[in-house]
Amino acid sequence: MNADWSNALCGGIVVGIAAGAFLLTYGRVLGVSGIASGVLNLRKGDALWRMLFLLGIVCGGAVGSRVWPENFSGLIASTDYVRLGVSGLIVGFGTKMGSGCTSGHGICGIGRLSVRGIVATLTFMLFAVLTVAVFGRWGAQ
Amino acid sequence: MMFAMVSFLVGFVFSLGLGWSGMTDPQKVLGFLDVAGSWDPSLMFVMAAAIPVYFMVWQFLKRRKRPIFDDKLHVPTRQDIDKKLVIGSAIFGVGWGVGGICPGPGIASLGAFSFGALVFVVMFFVGSKLEGVIYGD
Question: Whole-model pTM?
Answer without folding.
Answer: 0.96
